[in-house]
Design brief:
Elements (H helix, E strand, L loop, with lengths): L20 H14 L36 E6 L36 H7 L7 E4 L22 H13 L16 E6 L2 H7 L5 H21 L4 E5 L8 H4 L3 H28 L4 E5 L1 H10 L25
Parallel strand pairs: 1-2, 1-3, 3-4, 4-5
Helix pairs in contact: 3-5, 5-7
This protein binds 2-acetamido-2-deoxy-beta-D-glucopyranose (5 copies).
Pfam families: Lipase_GDSL (PF00657)
InterPro entries: GDSL, SGNH_hydro_sf
Family: Belongs to the 'GDSL' lipolytic enzyme family.
Length: about 325
């Protein structure tokens, strides 16, 4: 596969870190809002948060602080997808997602978390590229999505990423991202767990799936990505579809989710440790969702939800 050299970046090499009080304050606000973690030496760990994935001994030089970001690139499934198409309107400050116009037509009602990240909790003006697909798995040959057209992470990376955005995006007119002003996010695993749920070869399949995950993020790294945000799998055992299967299967799924999240954490930890110029955030959605299920007002943003157990048009919590 063609990987454009990282050297096509113009200014990344000369970039100097800017860690300032304002950046720290912004990071602290994000920590409070989302329980995200930034593992630069300056960050402090909130009470609700998970352990850091890996803390480098030095400050990675590409992390500009939240207020220094200009772009976000999203890889993921329906929790993230906005159904962006590169051939239609590109993102701009007036319209940070480009196309389609909000609210669009996605499986959950927008705004999605990706909308909030770009347009509400942003600390700078951002533009975004969505490469995610509803129903996506990580390795779409191993865990075939329910429709052929759905691209797994493997094809999200090998397709539009490699063609248009890798190496700073040579044909990505209007999306001049650079290593030091871009956050790249990955939220996968939900569909992978669902598809292999009853498979006896599940352990082996997951191992291969996580190998594909690792290879994909290595490609993104070699294409210039340095700042990453990973999501683990939320408590999908509490989703109405699983609850309907009965308590035994619900428990089985809960165990699988815990195992998966541990394996994912290990992979991300190793990736971050091996690349000492990366900054990696970990959003423990399992923890955030659980807190909200226990007490919807544990987070200001979810206090307005009406129904925490089923799919309803107003709450839109479950796909
Ligand atoms: C949204 O998409 C679904 C499935 O792709 C389609 O059936 C429906 O007509 C669309 N709705 C609108 C308002 O475009
Ligand atoms: C966040 O994004 C919105 C929508 O693009 C923009 O109007 C706003 O100025 C941004 N906030 C900051 C702090 O730049
Ligand atoms: C795992 O098992 C499933 C179901 O039996 C099968 O369809 C699939 O091909 C197997 N995958 C691998 C990689 O062995
Ligand atoms: C980071 O890793 C590179 C390549 O492995 C190595 O050459 C460099 O010395 C490391 N830098 C620090 C500060 O550890
Ligand atoms: C589900 C969906 O339509 N996702 C879109 C997200 O963006 C990619 C590539 O930019 C599109 O190909 C997908 O159609």
């Amino acid at each position: 596969m063609d990987q454009r050299p990282f050297a096509t970046h113009n200014s990344a090499a000369g970039y100097k870190p800017r860690i300032r009080a304002r950046s720290l304050l912004v990071a602290a606000i994000f920590l409070l809002l989302f329980g995200y973690y930034v593992y630069t030496p300056a960050a402090s760990w909130g009470q609700n948060g998970p352990s850091p994935v890996y803390k480098h001994k030095w400050t990675p030089r590409y992390w500009p602080g939240w207020s220094g970001l200009n772009h976000i690139i999203f890889f993921g499934d329906s929790y993230t997808s906005t159904r962006f198409l590169p051939k239609n309107a590109p993102p701009s400050f007036e319209n940070p997602f480009g196309n389609p116009p909000i609210p669009g037509n996605v499986s959950q009602k927008r705004p999605l978390w990706s909308d909030f990240a770009v347009m509400k909790y942003n600390k700078s003006q951002l533009t975004a590229i969505n490469l995610s697909w509803g129903g996506a798995t990580i390795d779409d040959e191993l865990l075939v999505p329910f429709m052929d057209v759905i691209e797994g992470l493997n094809r999200q990376v090998a397709g539009h990423w490699t063609d248009k955005y890798s190496g700073g995006g040579s044909d990505a007119v209007n999306f001049h991202w650079q290593s030091h002003d871009t956050l790249i996010t990955f939220w996968f695993g939900i569909n992978d767990i669902i598809r292999a749920f009853q498979w006896e070869n599940r352990t082996e399949v997951w191992k291969k799936d996580l190998t594909t995950y690792r290879e994909s993020i290595e490609k993104v790294y070699h294409g210039g990505g340095r700042n990453f945000l990973f999501f683990n799998v939320p408590p999908i055992e509490r989703a109405p579809l699983t609850v309907a299967l009965g308590e035994d299967l619900q428990k089985k799924k809960a165990i699988q989710v815990a195992e998966w999240n541990q394996e994912l954490f290990n992979m991300v930890h190793d990736f971050t440790k091996r690349h000492n110029d990366t900054t990696t955030f970990w959003w423990d959605t399992y923890k955030s969702y659980t807190e909200v299920f226990e007490n919807k007002c544990s987070h200001e943003q979810t206090c307005v939800l009406k129904d925490m157990t089923g799919y309803c048009v107003e709450c839109e919590l479950w796909a």
